[in-house]
């Protein structure tokens, strides 16, 4: 279910002001942070049911019922395609995205959508265009331009230099993360890392999937900066978050980052981490990423073909439990 969060946020703001409350007043009465209230009123986050129940008696309106008035119709076809594209991105299958983009354009042209839904779809459309430009054509400048277009769809005054001044939804944090990665290619690794750390501090705590991507990219960027202890730290933070939340989608990537950091730190357990990553790639059918890791191992003459040791077998038992809990 998708909602017009911009219009809902404006309504919340109007109700608050009509009651004579400031955001600070609501924060004191509800225990919610002012930053959370800002995101809700700016249409940058879908409030949880608990948040709506906290705010309802304060604002003297049933917000769960009010939210239903802002449902977006005619969104199902686009959402199915979006999920299909996300699956391809997750598995590194970028070369068929152009066909999906053409189909997305047809959906945008034929559907009668409200302005908010139209903007949401266009934002994702520009985001996918940016991925294609970066991953297939290696055109980092154009990719960056598309990401900035994507950001300005919902945040019109966005400026990549003054990026800390804006309020972002979770998907916009993901766009900002990709802008950071392009800065690593076009400007400096240090600027990239600064932006990635901002993304980590700005992402909602319950948005685990994007947070894992950010942790991975921070670890990778520290690797590029030859700061392998920090690369190892953030890889371990990501691994811990995966296991705590029963997430498989980034676990192999994070173990590969851990193993590479350990290798450069001359930690002999690096081989265990790399074999774990390869084993995880097999389990999750992420063949493209497994090939990239094996290619890296061959470059550095790392033998990953031997039998896994007992610690890996023990981890596999834990992994089985994780995979079943996700079904």
UniProtKB/TrEMBL annotation:
Pfam families, alphabetized: HTH_3 (PF01381), RNPP_C (PF18768)
One term of GO molecular function: DNA binding
InterPro entries xref list: Cro/C1-type_HTH (IPR001387), HTH-type_regulator_Rgg (IPR053163), Lambda_DNA-bd_dom_sf (IPR010982), PlcR_TPR (IPR041315), TPR-like_helical_dom_sf (IPR011990)
UniProt domain HTH cro/C1-type: residue ranges: 12-66
Regions crossing the membrane: none
Superkingdom of the source species: Bacteria
Gene3D superfamilies in the record: lambda repressor-like DNA-binding domains, Tetratricopeptide repeat domain
Signal peptide residue numbers: none
CDD domains linked: HTH_XRE (cd00093)
PANTHER family, per database record: TRANSCRIPTIONAL ACTIVATOR, TRANSCRIPTIONAL REGULATOR-RELATED
Protein name, as recorded: Putative transcription factor, MBF1 like protein
Species annotation: Acetivibrio clariflavus (strain DSM 19732 / NBRC 101661 / EBR45)
């Amino acid at each position: 279910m998708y909602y017009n969060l911009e219009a809902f946020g404006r309504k919340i703001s109007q109700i608050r002001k009509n009651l004579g409350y400031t955001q600070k007043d609501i924060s004191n009465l509800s225990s919610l942070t002012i930053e959370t209230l800002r995101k809700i009123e700016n249409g940058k986050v879908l409030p949880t049911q608990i948040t709506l129940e906290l705010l309802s008696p304060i604002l003297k309106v049933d917000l769960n019922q009010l939210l239903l008035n802002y449902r977006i119709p005619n969104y199902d076809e686009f959402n199915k395609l979006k999920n299909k594209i996300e699956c391809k991105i997750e598995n590194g299958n970028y070369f068929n995205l152009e066909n999906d983009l053409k189909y997305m354009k047809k959906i945008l042209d034929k559907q009668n959508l409200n302005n908010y839904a139209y903007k949401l779809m266009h934002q994702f459309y520009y985001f996918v265009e940016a991925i294609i430009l970066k991953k297939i054509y290696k055109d980092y400048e154009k990719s960056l331009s598309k990401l900035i277009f994507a950001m300005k769809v919902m945040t019109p005054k966005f400026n990549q230099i003054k990026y800390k001044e804006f309020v972002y939804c979770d998907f916009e944090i993901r766009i900002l993360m990709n802008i950071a990665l392009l800065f690593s290619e076009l400007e400096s690794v240090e600027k990239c890392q600064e932006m990635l750390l901002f993304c980590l501090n700005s992402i909602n705590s319950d948005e685990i999937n994007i947070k894992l991507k950010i942790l991975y990219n921070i670890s990778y960027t520290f690797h590029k900066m030859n700061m392998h202890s920090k690369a190892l730290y953030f890889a371990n933070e990501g691994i811990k978050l995966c296991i705590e939340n029963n997430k498989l989608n980034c676990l192999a990537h994070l173990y590969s980052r851990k193993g590479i950091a350990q290798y450069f730190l001359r930690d002999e357990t690096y081989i265990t981490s790399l074999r774990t990553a390869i084993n995880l790639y097999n389990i999750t059918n992420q063949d493209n990423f497994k090939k990239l890791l094996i290619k890296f191992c061959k470059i550095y003459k790392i033998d990953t073909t031997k039998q896994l040791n007992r610690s890996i077998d023990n981890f596999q038992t834990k992994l089985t439990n994780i995979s079943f809990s996700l079904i």
